[in-house]
Protein 1
Amino acid sequence: MSVVARQGIKYSIVGYLGFLLGTVASIFIFPHDMTFYGKLRYILPTAEILVPIVVFGLSFSNVKFFSKVQEDGKHHSLLSLSLLAVCINFLIFVGGYFLLNYLFPDLQNSKLWEMKRLILPLVLVLALSSVFNKFLTNYKRIVVPNIFENLIPKIANIGAFCLFFFAGFAEKTAYGFFFLMFLISLLGYGYYTNRLEKIRPDFDLGYFKKDGFYHEILTYSLFGFLGNIGNYIAINIDNLMIGEFISFQENGIYSLIYSIISLITIPQMGLFNLSAPIINKVLATGDYEELDRFHKKTSLSLFFLGLVLFCCIVVGFPYLADFMKNGDDLRTAEPVLWVLGFAMLFDLATGFNGHIISLSRFYKFNIVVMLVLAVLTISLNTIFLRYTDLGILGIAVAYAISLSLFNVIKISFNYLKFKVFPLGIEMLYALILGFLSINVAILLPDFKLNILNLFYKPAVVLILLFLGNHFLKIYPLDKYLNKSFIKSLFKF
């Protein structure tokens, strides 16, 4: 088996393990103290929003220019100078941050200022880690970085929470453990990189000054920074704004619901990585009809499988909440589940829109759209927080609107440039079938034991969906639910 195949399989295992670990913790551990969990879910997303400012796209340059500098034996110089530049950027950023808070004292009333001693050092650790993370992909090693990137944050959250709530340690001790896990992750990056190829620190600038090579690197890094910061803001701004302007408790509730409903994106985890080489090849040949067929096929797969999970989750959620600590708070916030779920379903239905753009010659458009998404998300969140009393439901609506508009823009762009369109009539049939299944399950009588309701109602949804799909021929499940396919899952 090739290195790529082995790494791909192990990467998927680590990804699903991390997802499972986070989901189990969200159901059985974090609900015990929504406020403290809300604080943890404020710290990391806030730090992640600030990381792109410090990295300034240098992590992407370590991938883009690796082949060129490796041929000249200067790839260690690129890594060394990138790490040094991140440290310098961090010092400039911290200086600017304290100066800004000195000039505008009202900023010192923020949660960010209150937690600066934890968040700011975490920004530096995450920034350095991101450079190592991208550098390692040049060696086709993605499993260990995936452990540091996906598993370690979950272990940090779970460990810090257990130390505080179950073991009775002070918050500072729990935060210390939280930070320590990311510091260990950074050291692990350095150790693993050195194992693959001994690191030789080289800070000589002469090579990069030749023919203005440094200018090319900085230009590419700038585009990487613009796209990356837009992405980080769009993903993490909800937790920051809820923590700042509502409460940590509400941030905890929102984060738990988001974790549960994001289960519907599981089918997306591996498919996009598998699709990228196919998209790249088709774009190179200019066979846009084949791209359209492939786009529709994968979009339908993502949407139908996501819809099945969505229907089961929304039907079973009220009964699941009864088994969770502080379940009444979660049931009160159930509309958030529906709003986020619809937004994610539409995102699944649009398939790999972003991949088509980023792999084409129009890749810069993705950066523009991502920045628009970031600005739109912040603006909508501010409007809903300032002019409505919807609380976290308003944040969810803002997220749904911005994500949906983001996808509409990408759909329109791809249709104009490549004549590809992901949506099909089968999706409408599937959506109608899903709503009918949900309504039938809701109208069915409840048992006195909630554990029975938790399993029997989603089971009814599954039966109705599969029966409806059998007669309407929406999605070709028969191609997958057969002996040969099931056997292939257990073969490498």
Protein 2
Amino acid sequence: MHTIWKGSISFGLVNIPIKLHTATEDKDIKLRTLHKECHSPIQYEKICPVCKVELKAEDIVRAFEYTKGKFVVLEDKDFEKLKKENEERAVEIIDFVKMEQIDPIYYDKTYYMSPSEGGVKAYSLLRKALEESSKVGLAKIIIRSKEQLALLRVYENTLVMETIHFPDEVRKTSDVPNVPAESNVSKKELDTAIMLIDQLTTEFKPEKYNDEYRSALMELIESKRTGQDIVTPTAKDNVSNVTDLMAALQASIDRTKPQKTTEKKKRVTPKIRREA
């Protein structure tokens, strides 16, 4: 499993060298966009709208737009300085809380944690302590140049880190339009709804659920593939890209040369008239 981050987690005087591994994967079917006429994949170019030129990676800088049309440019050295300052800090568990106190709206991404060399015992200790206390640890961590709030918990005998949103990243429910302030439902309606919920209540077994749309789309793609309902891009013309002047002249001469015939012309022997 690929390691995306190396560091250490500490709580009190206990330090645990760990590695992070992405726990989930995106299985969405990636579709390409093609030109309808020739079925060639479409390329997206980065073009400056003012200079009308295509930009390379070295021509592009990052900036923050603090007001419409006005930017503060940030250079690579600015990010490197921040990254170094934050990487030198150990990831410290700052609080322990009950997991049910954290609403799922805060959850972002899940990572598995494995112990690095020399961290097995401390890893086992934290895992056991979290299980026995029924608590989760809250910590801060820098991942991909972004500080994130995270919680540490146990999942199937493995320590898991859940990155969670900061409070100011969660929008206020008061901003949601058309939410009724009071519920105008009768007791009979409520009792019927609760009865329906009770009838549909079951034990959560994740393996019984699957992405039916993705499965149907893959079946469609496979049926088209096996039925040879496929397309290929139109071949590009091989245009000579000659930049040197002498090479361009030579290429022009070569293109205008008459082709050599493989058959030799028959020599015609002139007839000599003999006088009588």
Protein 3
Amino acid sequence: MANPARGETTLEIGGVTHTLCLTLGALAEIEALFEGGVRLDARNLVTVLAVLLRGGGSNLTEAELRAAPLDPLAATAAISTCFETSL
């Protein structure tokens, strides 16, 4: 169960509910990714999702996420919620 007070949210991937969390480590990893001003595209979105999933305790890799039945609108909403609740 996600704890919004900790900046957590959930996302269903392949019928399994996963927790996303913007930890300090996840934030540092995302900042490093975009340090050079990289544009947020579909590939980078999956990378950000993988980072937030690791912050929530998941072991899903980017390759597994790319192969998973993933609703892009639900994924972007979960990422957005994760950042919003972390403020």
